[in-house]
Structures are given as structure tokens and as C-alpha cells.
Amino acid sequence: MALKPKLNDDHRLNRLFHCIAKIDKNTINSVAEMTFKSMYNEIHIDEKWFFLVRDGLRCIVTQDEPPPKAISVSHKSHITKVMFLSALARPRFNHTTRQEFDGLIGIYPVGEIDIKGHRTVWRSNCCEAVHTTAQSPDLNVNDLGFFNSLQSRYYQTAPKDGLELIEMVEETYKNYPAKKLNRIWLTLQSVMNQVINQRGDNDYTIPHMKKKVLERQNQLPLSLDVTAEASTYPLDILVD
């Protein structure tokens, strides 16, 4: 069972309005099904925190290899943390499915790291983080997929210092597959349908779309059809 943010009535209402605003207004009164916007003009920015030292880390060593040295801190609250700002857009492909834009805007370390006795400060001044709605990590493509890959890579590599951590994060970001990122944007639209169905609540499970199968068959949609529940709201007023 996954832990989800606790929502109040304002959170639910803001989440509902946010998702309805993503409907393509040109499809509201059309004969065909309503669809979401392509979201090509959006950039999702979110922060990801890492501890430079993990408590309870287990290591496998060979018979002749010495065990790693223990790291001492005065208190767990004193373990250095590093924050990264990740900015992702939706990748673009032409009619032959050739990639034209990978969707990777940038990832930037923000904070302080003590490296070899020198205090180094990184700050990001290239963009301003704009969050969608409060208590809604499920409406950000970073949290929906990329941060899971980043966390998994962090466990696999176990960076020993700040420089190794930054190199790991930047490499994982740079090599993130554009097609995988594109599928996450469709997952976001699937989540928005569930949010509309639940009237803004987060008590739902993400339905499986078999996106990889559709992708191999060259049938992956640009945008998903909007749930019929959306038609119960005044869309002409709520949709941008």
C-alpha cells in the first residue's frame, strides 16, 4: 500500500480544476471524443533530495577485500542533504517517429556539500520552479516516473561524496530515454482522468494502458480521451 498525501477540500478542488484546465478546448463541443492537450508547451519542475550518507547501507565484499570504513556523524539530522531541481518537458517526434527533442531541459544541484574540507555551494538561477497544485506529486512527470529511476540508480551506485552524487544524477538524467519520458506524459493524462473521476481525490490506482505495446505498433496516442465524468462540469468556463 502506497502512502499518499492527505488532502483537504481545497486541495481536491484545486486538483480537479487543474486537470479540467488541461482539456483541449477545441474538442469540448466537437463530435469526436474530448481529449487532453498535447502539453508540448509545459515544463514540469520539481525537487529531489538525496542524503550523502545512507544509514543501514549493506555492502557485498570479496573474501580478500576490506570492509568499507564506517562513517560517523554526531546526529542523523546532521547528515548532509543535497537537493536537485529537475526540469522536464514532453519529447517531440516527427511523423516518422524520429526524435526531434528529448524533453530534457536540465537538472541542477542546489545546496551545500562539504568536499575535501571545502564548503561548496551550488545554486540554480536558470529557471523558477513552478508547482502545479499543493499535495499533488501525482500531477508532476518528475514524480510519476523519472525520480523513481533516479532513486534506483542512487541505490545501485552508492555515491561516496558530493561529486560522485552529482555525476550520477547528471548521467542518469542525460541518458533518460525520450520514449520512456513521453510515455510518462501519457501516464499523467491517465492520472488526470482518475482525478476527475474521483472529484479531485487521490484514492485511485493508475490503469495499465500497455503503452509499450502501442508504441511498438506505432499506435501510441498523442493525447488521451477525457473521461465522461468531465462533461458534468461547466467546461466552457473552466478550460483555459
Give the arrangement of secondary structure elements:
Elements: H1 9-20, E1 43-51, E2 81-89, E3 92-93, E4 99-101, E5 104-115, E6 118-122, H2 141-157, H3 162-174, H4 178-197, H5 211-216, H6 235-238
Antiparallel strand pairs: 1-2, 2-5, 3-4, 5-6
Helix pairs in contact: 1-4, 2-3, 2-4
Briefly say what this structure is.
The chain is of the alpha+beta class. It contains six helices and six strands.
Task: Kindly describe this structure.
With 240 residues, the protein is an alpha+beta fold. The chain has a four-stranded antiparallel sheet with strand order 1-2-5-6, with helices on one face. Strands 3-4 form a two-stranded antiparallel sheet. Strand 3 and strand 4 form a beta hairpin. The chain is globular.
> What is the fold-level CATH name, i.e. the topology?
Nucleotidyltransferase, domain 5
Radius of gyration, in Å, reads: 21 Å
CATH class membership: Alpha Beta
As residue ranges, the low-confidence spans are 113-130
Net shape: globular
Strand order of the biggest β-sheet: 1-2-5-6
Number of helices in the DSSP assignment: 6
End-to-end C-alpha gap: 35 Å
CATH superfamily: Ribonuclease H-like superfamily/Ribonuclease H
Elements, N to C (H/E): HEEEEEEHHHHH
**Strand-pairing-aware structural class:** alpha+beta
Mean pLDDT: 84
Strand proportion: 15-25%
- The helicity comes to 25-40%
Keywords:
single chain; 240 residues; alpha+beta; Nucleotidyltransferase, domain 5; four-stranded antiparallel β-sheet; two-stranded antiparallel sheet; 6 strands
